[in-house]
Design goal:
The chain has 176 residues and is mostly helical. 70% of the residues lie in helices and 0% in strands. The chain is built from nine helices and no strands. Helix 3 (45-72) packs across helix 8. 15% of the residues are buried.
Amino acid sequence: MTQNMIQKHEHYWGVLHRVMTVATILDPKYKLKLIGFYFDSLFGKPDSEFHIKRAFNLCHDLVNEYTLKFKMSEGSSSYGESASSSSSLRLAKSICRSKKQVERLSIFDAYVNETNPTYKSKLDAYLEEKILPNTIDFDIFIWWKANGSKYPILAWVARDVLAIPVSTVASESAFS
């Protein structure tokens, strides 16, 4: 019975832990700095670097997934597409007649961006920006809306991740 409880705990809290980590990275007041601060105290300095790298890789993989989705979508996202990526996609579509060929080119673009060591992703650029001061009146959704044109994919990820409720209380219990 104890083993079953431990497995359930790891299953549910493990997912929540990853969601909260990505949400923290997408908060411009904290980014990876808060993750590093807490992981150092939780895991100790040597082990924390592994967990920080894992959190960064999770966020990076999520951004890559959204990039493919963003490039593949026919319509524009709520944050818009940049002119260069939009024109590149139109050019690719005019050259390649089949949707499968366009899909392969999009996957190839993501592969090149991921494997090119000189390429700096928008995630890297975002993380290198100065952390914002921690103020009471800060609204993360307004910040992402204002910076959505600078980081369209990250804004899309932030919109989805930050909207995930983290309460473990059933809605029936919360409102009764």
